[in-house]
Amino acid sequence: MNKPTYKELLDAGVHFGHLKKKWNPKMSPYIFMERKGIHIIDLNRTSEGLDRAANAMRALAKSGKKVLFVATKKQARDIVTEAARRAGMPYVCDRWLGGMMTNFTTIRKSIKKMQSFEKMLGDGTLSSVTKKERLTMSREKDKLEKVLGGIANLGRLPAALFVVDIAHEHIAIAEAQRLGIRTFGIVDTNSDPNLVDFAIPGNDDASKSIRIITNYMVDAILEGLEERNKVKSESEATAV
Questions:
Q1: Where does 104-150 sit in CATH, by number?
Q2: Is the pLDDT of residue 141 over 80?
């Protein structure tokens, strides 16, 4: 797992914050300077945040825990969806439904409904229904899949959330806090870093910045999973 260098972070624009007038004073410790009315994030602090977050992500994966990736901003959706799939982790990248975690039982019912539609549409169960009824069911299935497809295999609440833009995803953060779920987040200069357990100071608007940080978190997860599988294999070999 190769940690992004300072040059790579610079090239990705991770250091670019928001306009000074939009800043959150609680981000002061993470701001290096102001340039032409824009706050510049201290990449030393970003590097520290990456280390802390990656170590925690690796430990979670090694213990078999799930991390839910959340990014509903247009410029982050595809990047985070691809990254989460690479790690085999659940994700929400279309729309966060209020109560997605605090009312998880109801969400699971919607997922089962979606899976039921998929099964009926695929195995010919609906051969006796009209074309219009079949089309209606297909559309409802697609609608559910768009919002819930990324958490279809999430049987229980995740151990942690990784969020791109904690201000934009404030409902998800609030639900995680209420349930005591650990939170990781890319935190720009307009946000409160104290709202997440593991703040990674960085540009949460630029796709290159989102990609380099998210992929490093996924690399940490994959390393943790590799360590978990290695320990499991050694245990099985010893048992034999």
A1: 1.10.287.610
A2: yes
